[in-house]
SDR family oxidoreductase (Proteiniclasticum aestuarii), 294 residues
Amino acid sequence: MRVNGKIAVITGANSGMGKASARMLAEKGYHVVMLVRNRERGKEALEELEKAFPGSFQMILCDLSDGDSVRAAAEEISRKCSGLDILLNNAGLITTKRQLNEVGLEMQFAVNHVGHFILTLTLLPLMREGARIVQVASGAHKWGEIHFDDLTLEKNFRPFKAYGQSKLANVLFAEALSGRLKPHGITVNSCHPGAVGTNMGVNRETGFGRGIMSLLKPFFRTPEEGADTAVFLATDPSVEKVTGAYFYNRKPMAVAKKAQDRELSEKLWRWTEEFTGVSFKEMEKNMGNSSVRN
Ligand SMILES: NC(=O)c1ccc[n+]([C@@H]2O[C@H](COP(=O)([O-])OP(=O)(O)OC[C@H]3O[C@@H](n4cnc5c(N)ncnc54)[C@H](OP(=O)(O)O)[C@@H]3O)[C@@H](O)[C@H]2O)c1
């Protein structure tokens, strides 16, 4: 069955702010496509959400560290959905040890930036005029650098160096994409959710980090509070035309100087297009075929 109506796709929708956003968007009447990397964790979240809003969700597997999985997910979304109104690029991870994906990319850069780049560009033909793309970035972009001479951080890996690199890439990507999508009437913004009590940093296999997170939770925002700005950017009429901005607490905020560096964002854009083989120009040729917003 092909889904009609208002449709939102959320990455990392089984946990933390992704799950909160899924609930909040269903409450606003969206059909929510939950992209998850793990079937069991995804099913658990889907069942929980379905109890509150029956029939409002579907789950599709998508491992953002694996380009083939991302492409397959985008194809499945295109087959199942009549169009796309919101893409919420929310998934993210931080790893304490240096990990590489199948094609040798550092894992945080692979998931937080490259996977979302492939997903976003391959979904462009499905997007309706007026669609909104929201990239959940982080204030951590401020300490990030894009280490073009050592993108995999082989020489000197540190978790926050890798996380900062990937989150700076998020902000640069959102800005570069916003300019390209302006003529198509699609907005792109990024945001910082604040410090939020989620499963960020918790090892999914060993549970390591869960204890520290539960100690910190009382001082942190709830996932719903953390998701508020992303959902605001995705739905509020007051920001319908706003694009290329970075928000915190529902307000535009200045990004770090390096995140405003157009040469840097274009260099990263070219690198990512070349590495992934996904070209904006090619995707753009197929835009504008989706049905108008209903
Ligand atoms: N929490 C904070 O204080 C904070 C602050 C600033 C920014 N952020 C950003 O907020 C976003 C949401 O994070 P959160 O705090 O809600 O953390 P979370 O509870 O850990 O959720 C992260 C989500 O990303 C998914 N994910 C991880 N690796 C993936 C992969 N390879 N493919 C697909 N999905 C993957 C996770 O799936 P699994 O559950 O299956 O692992 C999970 O659904 C992230 O982009 C994060 O960088 C968080």
